[in-house]
Amino acid sequence: MTSSPTSPSSPSSSSAGGWSGVLGVPGGALVVAGVSGLLHEWFGFIRFLGFTRHLIPAGHEVLGYALMTFAGCLLLAGAEAVRRRERG
Q1: How far apart are CA 81 and CA 64, in angstroms?
Q2: 24, 28, 22, 20: which is closest to 86 by C-alpha?
Q3: What's this model's pTM, rounded to 2 decimal places?
Q4: 54: pLDDT strictly greater than 80
Q5: Of 9, 41, 47, 49, which sits most exposed with the smallest number of CB within 10 A?
């Protein structure tokens, strides 16, 4: 019995699944960090990912966290595009 090209064990599906994960994990982390930073700046909520404050220049926190959230959304959109391309 031969495996079909759309089977989960085919090499193309495993490589595309890897790329969507490579883009999705940091994308999700950037979205969570950006939204967490914005909530902290606007409302004083507890900072969820405190290390991200070292990535943003002083005095530009709101813009930096907004850009971080936007970059995360772009990475997540790229991961979804890779998934859709793999599905056909």
Answers
A1: 26
A2: 20
A3: 0.73
A4: yes
A5: 9
